[in-house]
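From the shared-data thread, chain only:
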Amino acid sequence: MLDIKFIIENQQLVEEGIAKKGLQVDIKGLIALHKDINKLKTTSQALAEEKNRLSNSIKSASAEERPNIIAKSKALGEELKVEQEKLSLEQAKFDEIMWRMPNLPSPESPIGKDDSENVVRRKVGEPTKFDFTPRDHVELMELNGWSEMERITRVCGSRTYAITNELARLELAIHLMVMDKLAENGFRIINVPSISKEKPLYGQGYLPFSRDEIYYMPEDDIYLSGTAELILNSLRADEIIPENELPILYAGFSPCFRREAGAAGKDTRGLTRVHQFMKTEQFVICKNDINESEKWHKKLLQISEEVLQDLELPYQVLEVCTGDMGAPKYRQYDLEAWVPTQNCYRETHSCSNITEWQARRTNLRYRDNSDGKVKFVHTLNNTGIATPRALVPFLENHQQADGSIRIPEKLQPYMMGKKYIGGKK
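Structure, as tokens:
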């Protein structure tokens, strides 16, 4: 959400920013609504004040004057009711547009219409070469008896997974390794629920943009969360945080749920795109200063690059273009790890600076020590690790000719010191 005052004072800039994202918002209509609302508020306030004045004068009025005063007060009440109904309708229209108002992209973000125009900023590591024909991750799981994919599909439906034995331990080990890294960087580990009321979804920006991607339980009026960011963004909602508490760093862990309603035609084999997964999320709340939040943006990206380096995976860093970054984002990087059997890079991390856009939706503020003013915070998020998606490049890049999987040195302490799992017994 943007500040309406900023929108009015920077109409052209706002319209250009929205256009860069390939979105449409009726800015002129929004400003006209804002003016109408202010007029209706002024009229309603004047009517209410006059009605109160008349009501207060009834006691001191003579018996002859009272009927006339009461009649005038009643007429004003009816007029006030009509004006308030108009105000309520206009406010609802205004709010609907404001909830759909995207964040403006950074001037540094590449301009483009979709993911085909994202820009590769760097590649780290060479794509893995093999002296044998590599197996894909599904074949590796089947060879080692690490999955129950066919059985779990019969029980739970498509795009679900069940992994077993060493692979199940590996999934948890990777999360523990990432949590330790985040803790070393000052993040507070927090396990959060995977259910949410509706309001936090508006606060994060899932709603009203992506309702078809979210699982909803109408009998309980509860939604399933697609990321810990959803919960963490509203954890301090409506608070005014002392500046000396900033930055607040959360490492949120939770099961996550996504309908993937728009995923038809994309690669859905095996573990690549499933409805339920586990995710460790980086979330930062910092001062309202673009230099400060961009500093944290780079830090979050650095941490995720270290994760992929610790996992010894070749990867590339993409800067996401304006048309692909989505409504909440000011600036975004994606990390993609190399998947040998697909001969391409696949996304493992998404790192975003949201500036004050989410904070305005959740009313999350702090008091600035320098001037004593209350300001909206900046929020940022980035994947710590998401599984089972990250297991796809991990298994394929570290496979050996016999089907065993090499465990990178940094991960071995979390795997009871094992250097390999699976393969010929």
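The domain at 4-99 is CATH 1.10.287.40 (Helix Hairpins).
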